[in-house]
Amino acid sequence: MRSVKDILKSNVLATQPHAADLKSIPCIDPSPPLVNQNYESTDPLNPAETLKCPACQDRGIIIEGDVAYPCNCMRMRKMENQFRHARISRVLKNCRLEKFRFDFYGPERVDQPHRQGAAKALKAAYSFVDECRRNPHGLGILFTGPVGSGKTYLAASIANELIEAQLQVLFLVVPDLLDELRATYKSEVNEMDLLDTARTIPILILDDLGAHNYTEWTRNRLYSIINYRMNELLPTVITSNLSLDEMEDYIGVRTTSRIIQSSRIFRLTVEEDIRHQMYEEREGK
Fold first, then answer.
1. In the predicted model, what is the mean pLDDT of the chain?
2. What pLDDT is attached to residue 253?
3. Does the first or last residue of the chain, that is N or C, have fewer Cβ atoms within 10 Å of its Cβ?
């Protein structure tokens, strides 16, 4: 996984394509390399070498007569880079809002509270994506609920939808972020670079804001991120298995207050951990 500092060194996310180009960008899983083993290289010096893109011979452009234009593979590589820079893990890159499964939340009934909560959260996720596409400044979302209730799935789905819309997104797992911040004491990484990235990225996802070992130092760093983003109206998506009262105990009253002020709050609940349900489904039980 790339560190936040590595992201700062890249200008890939700073380059925005024209709206007309977006229609030609396919929805891809950027994990595998863009290699087609069925095509052989036409390079006489490397006859056995395979081409990543036979259409442009890996040049990145296609020439037709006197006209040259970017090959579609360049857009695909750009999309691949955006997923990588957003720090979306391999298992989460395939999460999509349209794949959200209500059957994990119990039988379909009008009085089913688990399904009702899931429906409200999914609708809010769709609305958040639409709002971010129209306006870079606005409210964030806080998804709360027990472990295995679908919070991370919704957050990752939001991130993937926005990345495909060519928006700048950073997906951070809170314990990993805190570990990186602590590590700045023993490395050459500049702590302010890490904080500035989390503070200023247009859309930030903070996953798993839970009952970790918070010190006053880490609480202050979290407060710095949340407070800056609230004041600049930069939307943040947060997932947590803590209640608001518990959140105050762990990360502090002032940080919790700012999360409430800058977020719409939705709670997801399930009878059984979704990961357990997926295991039983996978194993045929």
1. 79
2. 96
3. C
Banded model confidence at residue 77, pLDDT cuts 50, 70, 90: low
Residue 185 φ then ψ, to 5°: -65, -30
Share of the chain above pLDDT 90, in %: 52
CA angle centred on 225, ends 220 and 226, rounded to 5°: 95
| Higher pLDDT, residue 89 or 278 | 278
Reported as a single tens digit per residue, the pLDDT across 106-121 is 988 767 899 999 999 9
For the chain, what is the radius of gyration of the CA atoms?
A: 21
